[in-house]
Amino acid sequence: MDRKSLNAIALTVRSLTMDAVQKANSGHPGLPMGLAELGALLYGEILKIHPAEPGWMDRDRLVLSAGHGCMLLYSLLHLAGFDVSMEDIRRFRQLGSKAAGHPEYGLAPGVETTTGPLGQGFANAVGMALAERMMAARFNTADHSIIDHHTYAIAGDGCMMEGVTAEAASLAGHLGLGRLIVYYDSNSITIEGPTSLAFSEDVGARFQAYGWHVQSGSAYDAEDLLTMTEAAKEHRDAPSLIILESLIGKGSPNKAGSHEVHGAPLGDDEVMASKRALGLDPEKDFYVHPDAVAHFERRKVEWARVHGEWVEAFASWAAANPELHDIWRSSFEAVDLSSAAFPGFQVGEKVATRSAGGKVLNSLAKAVPNLVGGSADLAPSNKSVIDGAGHVEKGRYQGRNLHFGVREHAMGGVTNGLALHGGLRPYCATFFVFTDYMRPAIRLAAMMKLPVIYLFTHDSIFVGEDGPTHQPVEHLAAMRAIPGIVILRPADAQETEAAWEMALCRTDGPTALVLTRQNLEVFDKHDRQWRDTVKRGAYVAKEARGSPKLVVVATGSEVSLAVEAVRDVGEDAIRVVSMMSRELFLSQDQAFRSSILPPDVARLAVETGVSLGWEGLGGGNIVGIDRFGESAPCADLAKHFGFDREAVARRIRSLL
Ligand SMILES: Cc1ncc(C[n+]2csc(CCOP(=O)(O)OP(=O)(O)O)c2C)c(N)n1
Ligand SMILES: [Mg+2]
Predict the structure, then answer these.
(1) Are 518 and 542 in contact (CB under 8 A)?
(2) Cα separations in angstroms, 435 against 374, 398, 430, 470, 479
(3) Closest ligand to residue 67's CA
(4) How does 387-410 read in b/e, with b if 16+ C-beta sit within 10 Å?
């Protein structure tokens, strides 16, 4: 270990952090200054990375779960040679800078995930560590270990208080994710003051109870840090927590150890005082120690060598295992469904879209070998199991089915981590109403444009007897409010096939399939090209004779309801549109939208959800449900809430 260089790196982290935060007049100097030594050790000694090839599959992952401490990451990425320039750092938190307010995936190479909402990064790291084991189980052979890396995470007091961390840690312990090493920055400070205000448990004991390997020490004893990290690596069958006692804002003579240094610039005077105390020239801004630069120049040579060895090993593995290599290659390419067999549902078949979804999943799983996923303990209801594909358990990571346990929030975060790692195509499942329990992770999947697939079943009041707690009402509106997610609510089993195809072919963001509990009859579709048209969000399910007097727009289970109601009305001049995806439809050009919803024709929207968002599309006429449901059999609820044929037909007549 080259102590002198590591000190120079830590000094540089403190210098860049103080100046960047001061210049931006915004940011969090406390964590980067408190963990500068750990950061120096990680990038300077521990991490197996290759900044020239930031996407290298077998690199170690580092997740800064305490995302507010992002200047730690930016300083080190800059020094290590990732594409984060000094100009980016000088423009910390300004428009267009890679050094954004919190780490953003896709903006700065070397940032493995978007963090900031505390605890999410921790759950992502669990997902990455799980992906590593799953990929290793799929591709490593007796002669070659092409996937063999660690996932490191840095978590703060805030992460440790968050529930999502508890869920994810419990799952990681259960699965024995031994390549996961989390450093806990135990500085006993959060925003409001000392952690003693609200946090007094024994975190180490808690993690031990989860089945983790737990060590503790000082954040400032480099030898000990390295020794603990080595011990964590050797502990192969359990994730490791390394609790580090640290001093927030270390280096600031008057503010270190205080919550004042958590999230506010030090102030010009204290920056000067800190620089003097650290032996830096107070007149120099954004100082970089030459020993730090020299150290990383040497590291780059070493990293290139290690990466080069891997490339050679990979080539020899590929030559020896051509079938595995084909699967590997296809795992990183766009999904090809050209030869995939679909179940092929017939008109008149009565099948719940959740059941159809399960059949489609099982058909397509054959064509997409890296499709993996699971449910938060609702697999029998969600129909989310890949039959005969085994499940992942401690020490056995070959299976394709995951048991997330009753942990929706961690499921969302872990699934993001699976997607971020690369190589696997993850889905996860629960009741639609419980998206409330995983919304923060869904939002981040959308922000990061991760192609995660969600299977959300039991999608409306038609859940029935379980009552209002289990009947989603506001959830379609709430999900649609997240930018970048595609919500697909298929109207029958055939549409469910199309929805799965659309989800699998999407590469630039998450897709949710919103599926029914109850049976729906497969209906004959007017638009013979509907499978193509629906990719634009909507198509004509039933056409009017002559020019339409009314267009009924419906989604999911309400499409066949609308078709039946129109039949009951006995008026031929009514069109019914199935709008499988409102956001896809709204993103189409005017010509397409007018072809589906002709201007100047009266409209009615029918959906078993809150009316919010249907005002325009429904032309002011909406059959919705702007209250919570009731517990009763499905058919009784339909009558009670005006979602039966008679009620919808009455509404249609009133508009003619
Ligand atoms: C989910 C979530 N809630 C609240 C916040 C706002 N917040 C940012 S940092 C922080 C305190 C974190 O304390 P700690 O992790 O100990 O960081 P330190 O002050 O030690 O740097 C809070 C409440 C957040 N980022 N995410
Ligand atoms: Mg803290």
Answers:
(1) no
(2) 15, 28, 8, 11, 8
(3) 1
(4) eeeeebeeeebebbbbbbbebbbb
Q: What spacing in Å lies between the alpha carbon of 508 and ligand 2's midpoint?
A: 35
Q: Give the model's confidence band at 1: pLDDT under 50 very low, under 70 low, under 90 confident, else very high.
A: confident
3-state SS class at 423: coil
280-330 tens-digit pLDDT: 999 999 999 999 999 999 999 999 999 999 999 999 999 999 999 999 999
Report CA torsion sign: 328, 48, 183, 55.
Answer: negative
Closest C-alpha among 343, 354, 385, 344 to residue 520 = 354
Q: What is the pLDDT of residue 586?
A: 97
Q: Name the residue of 68, 102, 252 whose CB sits within 8 Å of the most ligand 1 atoms, as the mutation to test its pocket.
A: 68
Among 463, 490, 521, the domain boundary falls at 521
**Tokens linked to 299:** 């590291």
For residue 361, give the H/E element and its range: helix 353-367
- Residues 16, 164, single domain; the answer is yes
CATH of the domain at 187: 3.40.50.970
Q: How many structural domains does the chain have?
A: 3
Sequence-separated (6 or more) residues with CB below 8 Å from residue 589: none
CA distances from 51 to 46, 302, 304 (A): 14, 11, 9
**Tokens standing for 496?**
């469910």
Angle subtended by helix axes 322-331 and 120-139, to nearest 10: 150
If asked whether residues 649 and 556 sit together in one domain, one would say yes
Assess whether pLDDT exceeds 90 at residue 607.
Answer: yes
pTM to 2 decimals?
Answer: 0.98
pLDDT of 634 over the 90 cut: yes
Contact between 247 and 33 (Cβ < 8 Å): no
Residue 391 pLDDT > 90 = yes
Which residues have CB under 6 Å of ligand 1? 30-31, 66, 68-69, 116-118, 156-159, 185, 187, 189-191, 248, 262
Q: Last residue of a domain, which of 521, 550, 580?
A: 521
- Supply the range of the domain harboring residue 159: 3-303
Is 260 considered catalytic here?
Answer: no
Chain centre to alpha carbon of residue 360: 23
pLDDT band at 226 (very low <50, low <70, confident <90, very high): very high
Report yes or no: 489 and 472 within 8 Å, Cβ to Cβ: no
